[in-house]
Specification:
Layout: H1 4-19, E1 25-30, H2 37-44, H3 48-55, E2 67-76, H4 83-89, H5 94-101, E3 113-117, H6 135-149, H7 154-169, H8 177-181, E4 184-185, E5 188-189, H9 192-196, H10 205-215, E6 226-229, H11 235-238, E7 242-246, E8 249-252
Antiparallel strand pairs: 1-2, 2-3, 4-5, 6-8, 7-8
Helix pairs in contact: 1-3, 2-3, 6-7, 6-10, 7-10
Length: about 250
């Protein structure tokens, strides 16, 4: 027998997408480490309660590798497409497009199918959620880059700055550059240079240039939310999907 409440909730979500001119269907999303139903709901424009009802879950506990049915639409890759251009077309972040498809490289083939998060407009967008920033923000971001990536390749410097910007855009982190950089978790600062005071050292010209490039949309980290050097032994960090490796810097989502 059909679960009427579960079916009705899912149909309501599909109807809403059809009203936006989006061809909707149910896609299968594979849970990865760090996921919660709330985060998945944000990605697909639905709520954790709807996901629970649709999938017959009795609690909000999920585990890596678990398959969940979610509302979405398909996109077929065409000649000349890039992940960046597809994300821009659908007014979503590059990071969210990578995450829903578990796509951490840039290779696309014509005819390839990609999942597009459902809660988006099908009209083109001129922005991928650009953030507001001041001269002081640029200086702070450049000082972090100087402290974290001195001696690393230039793209690693841009990647460090991009991680901060990706966090600003992500709902699980604060929404300004300074609040992301100075964020504390479990009593500890998120970025070591804030903890040890290196954040107060003057920024290099390379770091300032890298910060501005990241603020203008360049992201060699491929949507990463974390970075560390390859000598790190933190198992939690190494368990996350690697989005890029530049010099000794490892970027993960």
């Amino acid at each position: 027998m059909l679960n009427f409440k579960r079916t009705a909730a899912f149909l309501i979500g599909l109807s809403a997408m059809l009203l936006m001119g989006v061809t909707a269907h149910a896609a299968t999303y594979t849970v990865v480490s760090g996921d919660t139903l709330y985060k998945i709901g944000k990605l697909f424009g639905t709520s954790s309660s709807v996901i629970m009802e649709t999938n017959g879950l009795s609690s909000d506990r999920i585990y890596p590798g678990q398959k969940l049915s979610v509302p979405s639409q398909d996109y077929t890759v065409k000649s000349g497409d890039t992940l960046y251009l597809i994300a821009k077309k659908y007014n979503i972040t590059l990071a969210s497009l990578r995450k829903v498809n578990n796509k951490w490289d840039d290779y696309l083939s014509v005819g390839q199918k990609l999942i597009i998060p459902a809660a988006v407009s099908s009209s083109p967008s001129t922005s991928l959620g650009t953030i507001s920033y001041s001269t002081a923000d640029v200086d702070l971001l450049a000082r972090l880059v100087t402290a974290e990536a001195a001696g690393e390749p230039y793209d690693a410097k841009v990647g460090v700055a991009a991680v901060v910007i990706n966090r600003v855009k992500d709902p699980q982190f604060p929404n300004t550059i300074s609040s992301v950089i100075y964020q504390k978790s479990g009593g500890f600062y998120q970025f070591t240079p804030v903890q040890n005071g290196w954040i107060n050292k003057p920024a290099s010209e390379d770091a300032r240039k890298a910060a501005l490039e990241a603020l203008n949309g360049r992201d060699p980290s491929n949507g990463a939310l974390y970075y560390f050097d390859d000598s790190a032994t933190n198992r939690w960090l190494w368990s996350k999907p690697i989005t890029a490796r530049i010099g000794r810097m490892v970027f993960v989502y």
